[in-house]
Amino acid sequence: MTDHDEGTSVFLPAAYDVAWSLVVLGHAVLLLIALVQWFRARGTPAGGVLDVLVIVLVPLIGPAAYLIGRRGTARPASHDVG
Q1: Is the pTM of this model over 0.70?
Q2: What is the pLDDT tens value at each position of the chain, 82 positions in all?
Q3: Contact 63, 33 (CB under 8 A)
Q4: Domain that holds residue 33
Q5: Is 43 within a domain?
Q6: Calpha distance 42→44 (Å, rounded)
């Protein structure tokens, strides 16, 4: 047995593998949510091409910035009263 094999498990990933996997998963979810929100806002002035470029081309910060900036321009919910 070599020094490399001592104390490691083939079936359990290292902590940094798990951490990076969670970062990638979080980025994918954030990107998907931002793109869905952008797709819904395409017919409004808030749904510009520059927005989608920022969402896609700036990792992690782009989708987060879009969603935070979009929070102030959310359209009011339509409720049927009656």
Answers
A1: no
A2: 445 556 667 777 788 888 889 999 999 999 999 999 888 887 776 668 888 888 889 888 999 888 898 876 655 555 555 5
A3: yes
A4: 17-71
A5: yes
A6: 5
